[in-house]
Amino acid sequence: DEKDGVVRIASSRLFDVTGLNVLRLQSGCDFTVVLATSAEIERSLKETLGVGADTVQSLVSDAEASGDGVQVVSGEEEGEADLSHQAQDASIVRFVNQVLTEAIDLRATDVHFEPFENRFRVRYRVDGVLVEASIPAEVRRFQAAIVSRLKILSHLDIAEKRLPQDGRIKLKVAGREVDVRVSIIPMLHGEAVVLRLLDRSAPLLGLERLGMSARDRTVIQKRWSCPTASCW
Predict the structure, then answer these.
(1) Which of 41, 10, 7 has its CA nearest to residue 24?
(2) Sign of CA dihedral 168, 105, 194, 71
(3) Alpha-carbon span 174 to 124, nearest angstrom
(4) Domain map of the chain by residue range?
(5) Does pLDDT of 131 surpass 80?
(6) Taken in order 122, 132, 44, 21, is the CA torsion positive or negative?
């Protein structure tokens, strides 16, 4: 945040004098420091740059440093061994984990990975509505590796790109057991992936938590207890 030529930055290490001096020398700017927790900074970065922004930037930097650019979009240009290697890359693993963790935190029932000509979209279904996740645009460059990572997790054939595939994943996130049904469908610009999430540790909601009045609950419970349909 910049105001009157002074940049305001958030830091969880307010008394890191050495780090602040290095930042001042490298940026050539005057700035003030505002104390924030690591969680607040991470949340702000996610809202501004998207899910896994730091992870994707690490992937881009590694690709540029190696000189290959990792420009694969559809996956047709990569062999099975190359895609398998990319899918096991720590940054790819971390990005997929970040997306899955956010989906579970949002109590999403589905996650959609959708390839387009010029971008790669991730959407969550929350309360029956599809909501687009904020992710860095650069993630499109790694969509083949992301899909391959999901195939590996669900024990599917990463070399098969022309036929639909279905699989399953069992996850444990923050002590919560989640079953994931995986559907992969070939599309014009790559493979689309749909994940159906079932949180096995989520408690079943009782009538008292569905927003019903006491009178309505009594009526429904009475009718449920009838031996025949005549009560309705």
Answers:
(1) 7
(2) negative
(3) 19
(4) 2-36, 49-199, 206-232
(5) yes
(6) positive
Is the CB of residue 188 less than 8 Å from the CB of residue 116?
no
CB 70 within 8 A of CB 141: yes
- Asked if pLDDT for residue 123 goes beyond 80, the answer is yes
Which residue's entry shows tokens 């991470």? 42
With left for phi above 0 and alpha for psi between -120 and 50, is residue 152 left, alpha or beta? alpha
> With b meaning 16 or more CB within 10 Å and e meaning fewer, what string describes 213-228?
eeeeeeeeeeeeeeee
Confidence band, pLDDT 50/70/90 cuts, at residue 15? low
Give the tens place of pLDDT for each residue, 96-110. 988 998 898 888 999
Q: Identify which has the larger pLDDT, 138 or 59.
A: 138
Assign domain 49-199 one CATH number from 3.50.50.60, 3.30.420.180, 3.90.180.10, 3.30.450.90: 3.30.450.90
Specify the 3-state DSSP secondary structure of 149.
helix
- Comparing C-alpha atoms, which of 150, 53, 163 is closest to residue 96? 150
Q: pTM of the prediction?
A: 0.63
